[in-house]
Amino acid sequence: MNNLNEVIAAFPIETAQNGSLVESSPYGNGHINDTFLLRCKTPEKAEKKFILQRMNHDIFKNPPQLMENVVHVTQHLRKTILSQGGDPDRETLNVLKTRDGADWYQDSSQNYWRVFPFIARSVCLEKAESEKDFYDSAVAFGNFQRQLADFPVEILHETIPNFHNTSSRFQDFQMAVAEGDKTRAALAQAEIAFALDRKQETSVLTNLLADGTLPLRVTHNDTKLNNILFDADTHKALCIIDLDTVMPGLSLYDFGDSIRFGANTGAEDETDLTKVRLDLKLFEAFTKGYLEGCAGSLTAKEIELLPMGAKLMTYECGIRFLADFLTGDHYFKIHREQHNLDRARTQFQLVADMEAKWAELTAIVKKYENPA
Ligand code: ADP
Ligand code: GN1
Ligand code: MG
What we know:
This protein is of the alpha+beta class. The protein folds into 2 domains: 4-119, Phosphorylase Kinase, domain 1, CATH 3.30.200; 131-367, Aminoglycoside 3'-phosphotransferase, Chain: A, domain 2 (Alpha-Beta Complex). The protein is 45% helix and 13% strand. It is built from 14 helices and 10 strands. The chain has a 5-stranded antiparallel sheet with strand order 1-2-3-5-4, sandwiched between helices. It has a 3-stranded antiparallel sheet with strand order 6-8-9. A two-stranded antiparallel sheet has the order 7-10. It binds adenosine-5'-diphosphate (ADP), 2-acetamido-2-deoxy-1-O-phosphono-alpha-D-glucopyranose and magnesium ion.
């Protein structure tokens, strides 16, 4: 990117303390923002790293409001972490201000940028290396929700309206089928039929929210495993990242999206569908950890609906990938032909496997519904 130098110069990256920039390189596996790792060498020859991100303003229509959310949320987390005796420089993201004291920088091509100090000695996992990793991530996501329980929700902007409104996602999907590319639709006939067959279920959670059965909470809304950093030394879950979609939502969204990504025996874009199954051991580890992390704050109804949260979040992601495939891949970054179709197929395979294992999922949730 040509204007990277202009952007880097806007932030106090090269300073007497941080030293000089050695390298900037694309980083991570996010589907939305452009992320760069900046490596500096300090005068004492130590390494200092930063994460620089271009916010995707096609998707996030108002980056300044998004950054206001991120700043408010991280300040709140900082206070809570400090009061619990934790290390706020490692356990939450921190926004690095520009040299002018702003939380973001708009470059001469109208792109919006932000910088976070890199959380040192941390690792990001695409797949849990053990049940314990996944359990730890669940406790962390449950904790995260508790830490934000007293956050003044009225100051949060809705960065993407109807983000997890599955009925509204279904309408977008139907529109994509009607107006999308016909050659692509022919390739995805079986997947389109699979999605249409499940129309009735798309409004289950939104209806229960609307009639007051399920409580609205401040949730993360994008709880995939690679949105959490682990401590490289202890392998404990350390810091929840990717705060762009922290908004009012349902606990079931956070639970469900974690299961969708992390309890899949295959990768999100696996092409060999025989490798894609719901791992019951991982489902159990996450259920146990999430309920512990939420520490009694979930209602009986929320707990009962955890399997439905997992299924609907997986289904919803599937129709989002499929709609993007049908309409020309404008939303999720793709790295090969039919990448979004492959991703939709894994999601639907997982939904089908959850349906086949429904009795087991319900039994696992029952086992943990009353914390010891
Ligand atoms: P996207 O919205 O595109 O998914 P993320 O905010 O999740 O972007 O960042 C992409 C990747 O960058 C993460 O998966 C993680 O590996 C890394 N990352 C982001 N912020 C930090 C940070 N402060 N310290 C270390 N790594 C980070
Ligand atoms: C996107 O930003 P990233 O890669 O963490 C998407 C999520 C999807 C996910 C699928 C803002 O998450 O909603 O579940 O891809 N984020 C946004 O992997 O749309
Ligand atoms: Mg991410």
